Amino acid sequence: MIPFDYHRAEDVASAVALVSGNPEAAFLAGGTNLVDRMKLGVAQPTLLVDISRLPLDTVEVQEDGRVRIGTNVRNADLAANTFIRSRYPALSQALLAGASGQLRNLATTGGNLLQRTRCVYFQNPTTPCNKREPGTGCSALEGYTRYHAILGASEDCVATHPSDMAVALAALDAAVVVMGPAGERVLPVSDLHRLPGNEPQKDTVLDHGELITAVELPPAPARSAYRKVRDRASYAFALVSVAAALELDDDDAAVPVIRDVRIALGGVAHKPWRALQAEAVLRGAAATEDNFRAAADAELRHAETLNGNGFKVPMVRNTLAAVLRDLTGTARPDASAPGTDHPEGPGGPDDAGWEELNS
Predict the structure, then answer these.
(1) Given CB 3.0 to 4.6 Å as the disulfide criterion, which of 45, 138, 142, 193 pairs with 271?
(2) What are the distances in angstroms from CA 40 to CA 34, 99, 351?
């Protein structure tokens, strides 16, 4: 770890001024990702501006039903918040599915959104990586690809975004409040992160020195849920995850109609992937297994797999269908019936050993 200077910020304006004025400066909050990268030699800031003690650590419910979450709210506190647990279960479930209890006690809302990929080549300074050193190449293309992207990737980068929380926030239509040298702006969480294109080193649309100060949630949807598929039941990044929020026209109907739906996928792209094609198929459609799988197929039509991650395609299809069944009260089809799609092994989220379903 290289030497660096440390400054404890007294307010948002001074923190933004210090970081924006120094291209090698970085904000420090919980440090659960940044400090790891500094130890590995992947990040080498010369100045750390500590924002962890700024008064941005509250969850405020507004009169219009919206919720404002301060950037310094710890992941453990947000997951345990009674209002969040009851009204936005997808967010609480996503937070509890991420990392360990110790890390959730330190990790912050803003920091969680801005964590960088856990691609093994990005974290190894001895290997070529366009995200770490633009122009050096992507080692993952011919390497270990189990955790890598099947949607929106490029020949320069196939890494995936690691955040569970960000996937839930995308499905909940959340927005981030950002303060920078030019003042404050608000943008949808779905627009915060970038696909890699030919600039994979840029994870987000934020300019250097811009600071996320809060996350804003719209009024809660009627139903929401998050499900994560991973190699082990704890402390593992998603192979695939699905967050969904929906409204039904008639909850008591034998086959309800989906009035509105928002879906985001994790573990499949460089950013939390808003499943707009799947949403279009489902909006106004009956809540049936056939429609759930047709929606998944529409979203996966342009999926491109690598040697080692092709199982993610059926895994997304099955996991999305499982989440939608849970949210709509639809019975699971008989897996032995002709035409059902429940492949064995890692392609089927209901198979023991491949998914922890009730985190």
Answers:
(1) 193
(2) 10, 19, 36
Residues 141 and 104 sit within 8 Å (Cβ to Cβ): no
CB burial class (10 A; 0-12, 13-18, 19+) of residue 325? middle
Residues 184/177, Cβ–Cβ less than 8 Å = yes
- pLDDT per residue as tens, the chain (359 positions): 689 999 999 999 999 999 999 999 999 999 999 999 999 999 999 999 999 999 999 999 999 999 999 999 999 999 999 999 999 999 999 999 998 999 999 999 999 999 999 999 999 999 999 999 999 999 999 999 999 999 999 999 999 999 999 999 999 999 999 999 999 999 999 999 999 999 999 999 999 999 999 999 999 999 999 999 999 988 899 999 999 999 999 877 889 999 999 999 999 999 999 999 999 999 999 999 999 999 999 999 999 999 999 999 999 999 999 999 999 999 888 755 544 444 433 434 333 333 333 33
Task: Name 105's bridge partners.
Answer: none
Q: Which residue has the tokens 């590995």?
A: 40
For 166, counting Cβ atoms within 10 Å of its Cβ (0-12 exposed, 13-18 middle, 19+ buried), the class is buried
* Both structure tokens of 169: 């926030």
DSSP symbol at 347? G
